[in-house]
Design goal:
alpha/beta, Alkaline Phosphatase, subunit A, nine-stranded mixed sheet
Length: 456
């Protein structure tokens, strides 16, 4: 039997042979060949793990054209940054998967990864902040709550039930903020992070709400958060800030987290990037970053401890590759792919009250936008159409959405938006077919009805 160490060493090599997948628009394929496995049924107690690839994912370096009509314009646009076709594994239809995305090539061949190239929106913003807001809200116009926050509003109980939505980052991203419910931040196994930070010895809000500091710092936590809004304040905004603070307070006192806010220790069943003996290194031979691996280890620890988390959120930054991309992208890819593969394998060793953790978890990865097709001085500028993917045993793998035509770019040299790969269709698919929301509820949460992808 091939060990994980042996596989990772082999997958780093350019010649790894994998079964191809057929790319098609609006539909997918599990892939061909005997290694393909059918998806498992959606579990009764599903868990969603969202991974934000933060900074603008240059997915043309992840999934480059290899032998299709796109190859010639790709090589012209990327004379120094182009990925050699021999350094990819075949996904079919002249598209390859960069071998630096460790471990995901094999999972693709098994039909466990659904790739969505060209995903985005009709009114792209090339601002990190605006684009993140748009992706976070699931709406075209900035303002309001996040799509997962709105899900929490309708799916999580009004009181208690505070550990259903957890971010392992130290902030509270807009995506996770609801009107009456929010997620809580738990960034290590021994405590909680208040969603604010210190600047000059003063607490500064991370922007969870303009009245966040007032509601939490003046009134404290617990029952005092039922205090009416002060005269002249926005009652709804004040109550929203109160609700977020109350959830944080209740989570700290929830016995499900463990004794004295200390999760039971757990030793992962596999190595993660960042571990001293992890077999794959940076391009310069150094140790890979453990930033994402540590977040996913913590999520696995929470699942193993029996926490009732239904949605978890993690983030890997560093993808704003305006320069030094030839070195940075391979390192980031190895961290991303290696961490996701390690987490997927680690979940198999976890038995929960609702079944094996690997059967219960689906990973959803996204970035706020892609990169410009034409390289600049050693890097790429902000672009439009991006790449998202879903990973899990319940996923019907393949390509969903057409690969953009690199010979037909817009006036700014960016890939044209593919209306069949609207980002809200991704959210609708996850809400409806994974998180179990009724069709009408899903449409209400997103403000309209969007076509569902076929990977679930």
């Amino acid at each position: 039997m091939t060990t994980r160490r042996e596989f990772l060493q082999a997958s780093a090599a350019a010649g790894t042979a994998l079964v191809g997948l057929t790319a098609c628009s609006g539909g997918g394929s599990k892939g061909g060949g005997s290694t393909t496995e059918p998806p498992t049924p959606v579990p009764s107690a599903p868990i969603l793990v969202v991974v934000n690839i933060d900074g603008g994912y240059d997915w043309l370096s992840v999934m480059p054209p290899t032998s299709s009509a796109n190859r010639a314009p790709y090589e012209a646009l990327r004379p120094t940054l182009k990925i050699d076709a021999a350094a990819t594994t075949d996904l079919g239809s002249g598209v390859g998967l960069n071998a630096d995305l460790l471990g995901l090539g094999e999972l693709s061949s098994l039909g466990r990864v659904a790739w969505i190239p060209g995903i985005g929106m009709s009114n792209f913003s090339l601002s990190h902040f605006t684009a993140q807001d748009l992706w976070s809200q699931g709406a075209n116009i900035p303002g309001g709550n996040g799509w997962l926050g709105r899900f929490a509003d309708v799916a999580f109980a009004p009181s208690g039930d505070v550990l259903r939505g957890i971010t392992v980052t130290s902030d509270l991203p807009l995506m996770l903020r609801g009107a009456t419910r929010g997620f809580v931040s738990i960034s290590n196994s021994s405590g909680f992070v208040f969603p604010s930070y210190l600047r000059g010895n003063k607490v500064v809000s991370t922007g969870a709400h303009p009245l966040y500091d007032t509601a939490l710092l003046e009134n404290g936590w617990g029952t005092s958060l039922t205090t009416p809004a002060p005269t002249g304040s926005s009652q709804s905004g004040y109550q929203a800030a109160q609700a977020m603070g109350k959830a944080f307070y209740d989570a700290q006192n929830d016995p499900a987290f463990g004794t004295n806010n200390q999760l039971p220790a757990r030793t992962p069943s596999v190595l993660y990037p960042g571990d001293s003996t992890y077999p794959t290194t940076r391009v310069d031979g150094g140790r890979l970053s453990g930033s994402l691996g540590n977040q996913l280890k913590l999520i696995a620890q929470m699942i193993a401890s029996g926490l009732p988390g239904q949605v978890y959120y993690a983030r890997l930054g560093g993808w704003d590759t305006h320069s030094n991309q030839a070195n940075d992208i391979p390192n980031l890819q190895r961290v991303l792919g290696g961490s996701l593969r390690a987490f997927y394998d680690d979940l198999k060793s976890i038995t929960t009250a609702s079944g094996n953790a690997q059967d219960r978890v689906m990973i959803l990865a996204y970035s706020e936008f892609g990169r410009r097709c034409k390289e600049n001085d050693g890097g790429t500028d902000h672009g439009t159409a991006g790449l998202a993917f879903a990973l899990g045993k319940g996923v019907k793998g393949g390509m969903y959405g057409a690969y953009p035509n690199l010979a037909d770019l817009d006036a700014n040299g960016n890939m044209k938006y593919n209306a069949a790969a609207d980002f809200r269709s991704l959210y609708a698919t996850v809400l409806d077919r994974w998180l179990g929301q009724a069709t009408t509820t899903t449409n209400t949460l997103l403000g309209a009805s969007y076509p569902r992808f076929g990977f679930l």
